[in-house]
Amino acid sequence: MKAGGLLVLLLAGAASLAAQPRRSGYDDMSPALQAMQRDETQNPAMLWVREGEALWSQAAANGRSCAGCHAGDAAPGGSLQGVAARYPRYDTGRQRPLTLAARIDQCRQQHQQAAPQATDGPQVLALTAALTWQSRGLPLAPDSDARLDAWQQRGRQLFQQRFGQLNLACTHCHEQRAGQRLGGALIPQAHPTGVPSYRLEWQDLGSLQRRLRSCLVGVRAEPFAPGADEWLALEVFLVRRAAGMAVEGAAVRP
Fold first, then answer.
1. Calpha distance 53→80 (Å, rounded)
2. Residue 3: what pLDDT?
3. What's the structural domain count of the chain?
4. Which of 2, 173, 177, 252 makes the best surface tag, with the fewest CB within 10 Å?
């Protein structure tokens, strides 16, 4: 077959897959794993949710707690319900997007004089899990601020860029071949509806950025530096790409 004909077939296949309904990673899991996620007594991610709930009321060294400023907000139906579904958001002070984890860490540093933590720092991750659990079932509604558009476009470019020794882009697996199998595992569409997620392969809870790092390592590429703008751009793009889908975090994934 000539190169032009092959290109037409590839594009047609990609267009066909792109026309498929969006699917959460939950939809592609086995019934046993789906049941594990639904059952709060079996879902291992709930360990972090409960830890985050405890941290919410726990006073820091300076005597201040999250609950001290947000009294009652974390209760079911409180004002924090739905907050996790609206991140990343544009932060005017920083003039850049801010993830939920970054917002939590910003509050910890400013109001509790706590030491900074990365996205997967133990306290930040637990608090992120607890707040995300407050938004489960609600649709993702990321910030529509036009100042995020350039970040979204950069994220889209990275999603389509080839990386590593395997010379693969995210789109090759998660759009063009979504629903097919790789090494016996079903390839998901990569919608971040379940983050933070407890991944069985990690035996641990992790953020979206941790999952992205794993993908880059998987294609034998050098991951971006911690805190790099590339992670943030990808997160803006992926969450906007999944807008309207239900929040599932803290979820279980294979």
1. 13
2. 41
3. 1
4. 2
185 pLDDT band, cuts 50/70/90, is confident
The answer for residues whose C-beta is within 8 angstroms of residue 239's C-beta and 6 or more apart is 87, 88, 140, 142, 192
pLDDT tens digits, one per residue of 196-210: 999 999 999 999 999
Q: Tell me, yes or no, whether 12 lies in a domain.
A: no
Q: Model confidence over 91-131: pLDDT tens digits?
A: 999 999 999 999 999 999 999 999 999 999 999 999 999 99
Report how far apart, in Å, the C-alpha atoms of 26 and of each of 50, 144, 229, 243, 244 are: 22, 26, 28, 16, 16
* Residue 66 near residue 131, CB atoms below 8 Å: no
Residue 219 lies in a domain: yes
- Is residue 129 situated within a structural domain? yes
Query: Per the structure block, which two tokens stand in for 173?
Result: 């697996």
Q: What is the pLDDT of residues 73-88, one digit of tens each?
A: 666 667 788 999 999 9
Residue 5 to residues 10, 106, 242: CA-CA distances in angstroms? 9, 53, 32
Say if 71 falls within a structural domain.
Answer: yes
Please give the residue range of the domain that contains residue 251.
Answer: 24-254
Check: CB of residue 241 under 8 Å from CB of residue 133.
no
d(Cα 156, Cα 154) in Å, to the nearest integer? 5
- What letter would DSSP give residue 188? P
* Reported confidence tier of residue 15, pLDDT bands at 50, 70, 90: very low
CATH of the domain at 43: 1.10.760.10
How many residues in total does the chain contain?
254
- Please state the pTM of the whole predicted model: 0.89
HSE, CB side, 13 Å, CA atoms: give it for residue 82.
8
